[in-house]
Amino acid sequence: MTDEKNIFSRAEEFMQLFKKGADFTQELLKENERLRFKVVQLEEERRLLSSGGGSDKAVAELNKKLQNLEQEMQKLLERYKAVEAENKDFANRYLEIEHENNNLANLYVASYQLHSTLDFKEVLQIIQEIIINLIGAEMFGILLLDEKTNELIAVATEGVDKEEIPLIKIGIGTIGSVAKSGENYFIQEIKPFTRFDPVAPIVCIPLKIKEHVIGVIAIYKLLQQKPKFSELDYELFTLLAGHAATAIFSSKLYSESERKLTTIQGFINLLTK
Fold it and tell me: Most-buried pick from 94, 136, 146, 264 (CB within 10 A)?
């Protein structure tokens, strides 16, 4: 919850800075207009002095005043350009965060849907839709840990067959290391996709219940090429993994309890007969 609050507050902070910059720009424009009006007045005064036979000293003083005003206007113009560039930067950064805020809002909506079912297959389907629509992944796999064999098994995939992702031992390779450490993995530089390598994802996020890893999400290719991930991308991946892990864990527990109840009911039916 803290991560979501941080992102929303950051957007608000950028908006406040942008407003302050816009107000300052307006003040600079007003000051520029005042100076321009003063220049016009002085130029008219100089014209009258020159045509009316004013002294050279008076004309020289007037010229000096005009020169100082023009220098002041030039400095003001430079400040205006700097503030305008800063405003554009704030606006662009605000739009980026606003885009991420929209993604977070969509994630909230999707998470409600995710936690509204205890059907394991349905949960996996919803997670896949979230990864495609919000993360923009084209090729990925959801792998769950088999605690009996200590191996990660692909239970759902997109853009690749489940059989193409081998069983992965805990601690082995990128995916196995993420499952062992519980730490997110992101490739430093996203290069153009050339071929599918099942053990070399560009993103690998552990699915954790507290500190216990129950699986990973491994992403191999994005729909839209980008040079690197942003801080907000990292936060979005982490939030998604938290919701996904809880939903998967709950649905698995429910499925197992349903199977046990069905088995017990079967024994009861046999005994009563």
Answer: 94
